[in-house]
């Protein structure tokens, strides 16, 4: 019976899991360099696919964090539902990384980088998101050269950045409990403005049947002729199928002369967009300008500042160096340009960064963008639909779903904390 008293040591066992123990973290931290949160590594989702790392946007860490997608080149980003979406707090706003963030500041303490780690870390840059960037950094005065880019954000337009199509179908009013008649009326008025601008100033009557994926697609047929005195109304061009064979001045549709006139229109379209991207009112009559201002205000009100919330993320990306916003929409190119101008997004999306997937689909659009910017760049897809989600999966690009206001708020917070 003398041997029984040592059982009193059970108090030692109950206190054994000490806060200083780091059993799981150091080895796993070495597998995913660059992830640092106060709560450790994110857990894999139940039922998730092998080879995919996933994280939620309900952030608990107040430390600036950085995420490298180097795990088999695959990372799926998803935002929580509206119930779990977080509103930026004071802690989150104060969690911005300092301007002169050292190269190893975002690494786990167990694998902290030495002073000269910047050169060594260049090896992993191809598959990584890139270095954490101080938000105090001034935006470049000119867009980054294609070779300097690290991250490109591929945006959908309708129901992601702007609310338009769902105003007309009534789905927005139904989903968010708005007055259906009011919402439909706003959508119809904006639709009328979009097509009026497209028809009057952007050659939509000529180009509707000659839609292109990108504004430069027919540039090779342009002979560089001075268009300052060119009369587009009298050159006999007709974009409708079979309409070009009525006279010799028009030329056969698809022929050299017809293609040259088509290229002239896209060149002038590019000039008009670039000249008025920050002042679409200059293309409208005073009455239409008033209508546009009223519609912008009322749509923002009925959509609970949806566009304003999306703009915060767009402008944050634009203010960074080595990052770019690219628009890929299922709307035809000319109406898409009219939408971008009327919703005040012309300064965010240069015309060279706008693609229409109407003819070829989003997956092919993504292929074109990758061939333009290269595979060293990290691409992040942001959208609301299955098209862009499927296309992103095919190209192993992370996808961020937008379906509620909370998703937009969470996206901005992820960008602020340098998760994206």
UniProtKB/TrEMBL annotation:
Keywords: Activator, Chromatin regulator, Cytoplasm, Developmental protein, DNA damage, DNA repair, Hydrolase, Magnesium, Metal-binding, Nucleus, Phosphoprotein, Protein phosphatase, Transcription, Transcription regulation. InterPro entries: EYA (IPR028472), EYA_dom (IPR006545), EYA_dom_metazoan (IPR042577), EYA_dom_sf (IPR038102). Its EC number is 3.1.3.48. It comes from the Eukaryota. Its cofactor is Mg(2+). Binds 1 Mg(2+) ion per subunit. Residues 78-147 are annotated as: Disordered. Residues 78-94 have a biased composition (Polar residues). It catalyses: O-phospho-L-tyrosyl-[protein] + H2O = L-tyrosyl-[protein] + phosphate. It is found in: Cytoplasm; Nucleus. Belongs to the HAD-like hydrolase superfamily. EYA family. This is Eyes absent homolog.
């Amino acid at each position: 019976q003398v041997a029984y008293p040592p059982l009193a040591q059970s108090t030692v066992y109950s206190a054994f899991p000490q806060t200083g123990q780091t059993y799981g973290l150091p080895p796993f931290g070495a597998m995913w360099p660059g992830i640092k949160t106060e709560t450790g590594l994110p857990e894999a989702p139940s039922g998730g696919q092998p080879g995919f790392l996933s994280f939620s946007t309900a952030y608990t860490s107040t430390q600036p964090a950085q995420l490298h997608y180097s795990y088999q080149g695959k990372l799926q980003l998803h935002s929580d539902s509206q119930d779990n979406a977080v509103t930026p707090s004071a802690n989150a706003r104060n969690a911005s990384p300092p301007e002169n963030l050292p190269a190893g500041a975002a690494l786990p303490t167990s694998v902290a980088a030495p002073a000269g780690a910047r050169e060594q870390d260049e090896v992993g840059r191809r598959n990584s998101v890139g270095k954490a960037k101080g938000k105090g950094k001034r935006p470049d005065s000119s867009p980054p050269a294609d070779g300097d880019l690290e991250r490109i954000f591929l945006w959908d337009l309708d129901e992601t950045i702007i609310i338009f199509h769902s105003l007309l179908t009534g789905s927005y009013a139904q989903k968010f409990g708005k007055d259906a008649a009011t919402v439909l009326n706003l959508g119809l008025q904006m639709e009328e403005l979009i097509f009026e601008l497209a028809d009057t100033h952007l050659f939509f009557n000529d180009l509707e049947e000659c839609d292109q994926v990108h504004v430069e697609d027919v540039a090779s047929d342009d002979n560089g002729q001075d268009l300052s005195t060119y009369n587009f109304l009298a050159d006999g061009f007709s974009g409708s199928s079979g309409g070009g064979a009525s006279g010799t001045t028009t030329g056969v549709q698809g022929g050299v002369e017809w293609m040259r006139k088509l290229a002239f229109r896209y060149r002038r379209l590019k000039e008009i967009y670039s000249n008025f991207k920050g002042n679409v009112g200059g293309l409208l009559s005073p009455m239409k300008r008033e209508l546009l201002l009223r519609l912008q205000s009322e749509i923002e009100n009925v959509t609970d500042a949806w566009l304003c919330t999306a703009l915060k993320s767009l402008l944050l990306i634009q203010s960074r160096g080595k990052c770019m916003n690219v628009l890929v929409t299922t709307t035809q190119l000319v109406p898409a340009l009219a939408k971008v101008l009327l919703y005040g997004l012309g300064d965010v999306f240069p015309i060279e960064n706008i693609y229409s997937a109407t003819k070829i689909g989003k997956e092919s659009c993504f292929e074109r963008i990758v061939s333009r910017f290269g595979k060293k760049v990290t691409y992040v897809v942001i959208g609301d639909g299955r098209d862009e989600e499927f296309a992103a999966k095919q190209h192993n690009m992370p996808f961020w779903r937008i379906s509620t206001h909370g998703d937009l708020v969470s996206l901005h917070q992820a960008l602020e904390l340098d998760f994206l």
